[in-house]
Amino acid sequence: xxxxxxxxxxxxxxxxxxxxxxxxxxxxxxxxxxxxxxxxxxxxxxxxxxxxxxxxxxxxxxxxxxxxxxxxxxxxxxxxxxxxxxxxxxxxxxxxxxxxxxxxxxxxxxxxxxxxxxxxxxxxxxxxxxxxxxxxxxxxxxxxxxxxxxxxxxxxxxxxxxxxxxxxxxxxxxxxxxxxxxxxxxxxxxxxxxxxxxxxxxxxxxxxxxxxxxxxxxxxxxxxxxxxxxxxxxxxxxxxxxxxxxxxxxxxxxxxxxxxxxxxxxxxxxxxxxxxxxxxxxxxxxxxxxxxxxxxxxxxxxxxxxxxxxxxxxxxxxxxxxxxxxxxxxxxxxx
Length: 335
Description:
By secondary structure, this protein is of the alpha+beta class. The protein is built from 9 helices and 13 strands.
């Protein structure tokens, strides 16, 4: 008798030219992920080969019940690690039937920024560090923590090994991170969203809850961020350190605007403690993890490279953050 796992992982690629495309989109909260699957003729090598689709926006808080149809535009494809074979995951953004981006479609404006000739010429690279917390399903308390209580003081857990330090390594421990990149332009946002979707599916199978809250547990603990490493072509070339310093100066002038778009609840995380700068203070430094912007020692030494924006919260929208960084550092002329 076949096991459930055998049936779920059934590979039909030798029997049909059809594949399953899992369409993924962002729901009405701006952080929730939704998806549904359709069968199409394969193989698919580009999102442009896929048809548009629709969904009931009244069920996701994105359209009224009397006019509920929202249109999905396929934008990027990825191999499906669950169905495998030629099956794909499809990152989509959302439009009205008239072709207008709906308010929660943050990809649309980011794509406009990245398609600007001045931005495209700079080939912006992003490396995003997505931190997250895994919670026990029924009590919403971190994995490995005694229910209603606390583990020992912070310190032994960072990049650690051992059952008393790396809790639940088989499904990932209480708070960890993954990294995406280097990715060029809009691809960084697509890749983070699809990676979040994959993580949601994995934690679903493991029976744990994924939290992107920037400070899920109050107290003397690090929060959860999405540190965003960034460079442009000019920054990566000789003399790039001066370009980096000018870019950081621009970011400082628009600090409040960036903070407002860098994630809900970030004020609970950016306190000036636990490797953060205070939310109302902008400062940068070399190898300073308590700064808003950190420059690596290798970048300073080589006179070129990248910098890290440490302000984004773990629940930030990567389309918003990457687009704003490019817009401020490349297109904005400053005051």
